[in-house]
Amino acid sequence: MDEHALHGLLDRFADARVMCIGDLMYDRFVYGDVDRISAEAPIQILRVSHESAMLGGVGNAARNVVALGARCVLVAVVGDDPAGNQIRGLAENEDGLEPRLVVEAGRASTVKTRYIADGQQLLRADEEVTLALAPDTLKQLVATVAETLNDVDVVVLSDYAKGVLGDELLSELTAKARAAGVPVIADPKRRDFATYTGVTVLKPNESELAAATGMPCGSDDEVAAAARSAMVNCGFAAIMVSRSKKGMSLIEQDSEPVHLPARALEVFDVSGAGDTVVATTAVAMAAGAELAGAAQLANVAGGVVVGKVGTAVVSRDELASAIMEAEVLSSESKVVSTHAANEAVARWRARGLRVGFTNGCFDLLHPGHVSLLGEARSACDRLIVGLNSDDSVRRLKGDDRPVQNETARAMVLASLSTVDLVVLFGEDTPLKLIETLKPDVLVKGSDYKIDEVVGADIVRSYGGEVKLAAIVPGHSSSDVISRMTNRRE
What we know:
- The protein has 489 residues and is of the alpha/beta class.
- The chain has 17 helices and 19 strands.
- It has a nine-stranded mixed sheet with strand order 5-4-1-8-9-10-11-12-13, with helices on both faces. The chain has a six-stranded parallel sheet with strand order 14-17-16-15-18-19, sandwiched between helices.
- β11 (238-242) and β12 (248-252) form a beta hairpin.
- The chain is elongated, with a radius of gyration of 28 Å.
């Protein structure tokens, strides 16, 4: 999805409603400074300055859902203890969150305490039980889900192996969701993926996938092979794999794997990053996105959250800003050499994609250019733009041209969603570039005749198409520059 489509998707987040079910925790953070070693043992001494607390586990997934502007129903279990009371208080005070918490007598609520100095975790202390739910608790949870299922768009199962998502509950939940036509995304912690049979999307990390399948997961191809093996054995529609610094991979049935590069510029803390990825995927799907687009958003969100300390969330505004930043980086990567473009063409053709080509100076981009590029892109699956270098433009247009240098012109072109690659050429015509790339369709403006289009004979010789795009009247770079010059005078 391009930047415009992604931003349009963000606008629909407010209409999305997600149900999050799983292990709920009380995340406690103790902050301070370390400047000496204990005399009692070779350990650091933390001088505590302040503390904070927030919902963890499935609660962190729910917090991410509401931070993105969607509504969230949180279904979980707490104990009848002080930590359980604190968890309920946090859930009830979270804007946009609709808690449906079941209290189990005698059960200890899960508490995770992290000790942090200078932005780094020194120690984590866990208080928890991993007991299966009591029969009455299980019945209450199933009844709660049944009451709410028809009012949500997507269900998230957040399994931290603390006993809530047992075999029986997982089976009941997935069966009810499938009957209601509600997709289910599961974040697994078990080695046996068969337990999650029936979920729509499974989101393990790389090591979890390797452990569950017994297959290597070091490369893109290995991850795809392991994921397909799990999909066949367990009936998942898709598997989305978090791969740390390698980014994320999405493997769907009957589709080519999608490997998304990591977006984080600096990693401070990966706590809860998986919750952010799952929550963003769920909200995007609830807002109407295809899974590939949802994964693209989730990958961006994951890159944002690991740059924060603690079990943090990503807001809708932060995600919007990150999308724009990612688009700028993507634009830079679109400007390539002839050799790189030729390799890209080979990959596209292997996938059965139709490759288009057009060219020009594109000095001072105007509506006529935008129309031409849009029409060219509509005639193909991938569009390459050949861009005259500065020296080439000077020979063709005169010493006072171009107004913008080749770097600026290339970046502006690359920022357009209709353009897939930009290749600079130094000759007066793109003939050599066309001979190398052998596009399936060659596009020029209708101010040319087909026999006048450079490279038309070459493209037609191997069965390619030459297309003339309509010209928007009243627009040309020369006219714009002339008007600017006259105004200055």
